[in-house]
Design a protein that fits this description.
The protein has 245 residues and is mostly helical. The chain has one domain: Collagenase (Catalytic Domain) (3-Layer(aba) Sandwich), CATH 3.40.390.10. The protein is 50% helix and 2% strand. It contains nine helices and two strands. The N and C termini lie far apart (44 Å).
Length: 245
């Protein structure tokens, strides 16, 4: 605890001193002990702090499928934020410029509405009288969908090249390599929160609850249904899917 407080105090002191200086060309807005990541539209940058490079998101001794489903998905998520409904208003220099054509905007909005409608149907088990705000969380849900798709392409390329990373006999006995990728996706969202915390985040957070960031995203991704042999017409292999890209 004392180490954390010392680091936090140093971070706040550094921010205070920056008030009297000029604009920094490179300024990381996440502390290195935060297990998080962020996209900065004004600088066209994204940050992956050192703290997230640990289990379950990353482990150098784990098969690459698990790693790409974990931290690979995180990196893909942040990169995809550059193409959402807010960041499409910033160009490659971080200037306020809408670089999408009217047709692209219309197509995006139509496809994003599919995701918003889907997430409106999700009800947290501990809050049966509430539901996820599809419109409020659509940017993050879009980034989740794009992030998984991007990480999956990388995994498929590595698998084709035979670069699958360290072997794990226990995991290999239970899962195929493709299934392991999705295990990596899901386990980064394992968490326990009080009902009060869940209720507050449901109304104020632009992110969907972790459970639905897994269920909602993977149900719309055909390779997941193929990897786990989900029957046609079931929750994870629906007849119609929401696809942005």
């Amino acid at each position: 605890m004392s180490t954390f407080l010392s680091a936090d105090t140093h971070a706040w002191r550094s921010q205070w001193h920056r008030l009297s200086g000029g604009r920094a060309n490179h300024l990381v807005t996440l502390r290195n002990w935060e297990t998080n990541a962020r996209h900065n539209s004004h600088r066209t940058e994204y940050y992956i702090p050192a703290a997230i490079l640990q289990t379950p998101a990353f482990n150098p001794a784990a098969p690459h499928a698990l790693t790409l489903g974990g931290v690979g998905r995180v990196m893909g998520h942040e990169l995809n934020h550059a193409f959402d409904s807010r960041n499409r208003n910033y160009d490659d220099r971080g200037l306020l410029v809408d670089w999408w054509s009217p047709a692209s905007r219309a197509a995006y909005d139509e496809r994003a509405q599919c995701l918003a409608d889907l997430f409106d149907t999700y009800v947290p088990p501990d809050l049966p009288c509430s539901h996820v705000r599809g419109k409020k969380t659509v940017r993050e849900n879009q980034a989740d969908a794009g992030g998984i798709r991007s990480a999956w392409r990388v995994w498929q390329a590595r698998k084709a090249a035979g670069a699958t990373g360290p072997a794990n006999a226990v995991l290999s006995a239970k899962f195929t390599p493709d299934q392991l990728f999705f295990v990596g996706v899901a386990q980064t969202w394992c968490r326990v929160q009080s009902v009060e915390k869940q209720r507050g985040k449901l109304h104020s957070d632009s992110h969907s609850p972790g459970q639905f960031r897994v269920e909602g995203t993977l149900s719309q991704f055909a390779p997941f249904a193929a990897a786990f042999n989900c029957a046609a017409g079931t929750r994870y292999n629906p007849p119609k899917r929401c696809e942005l890209w």
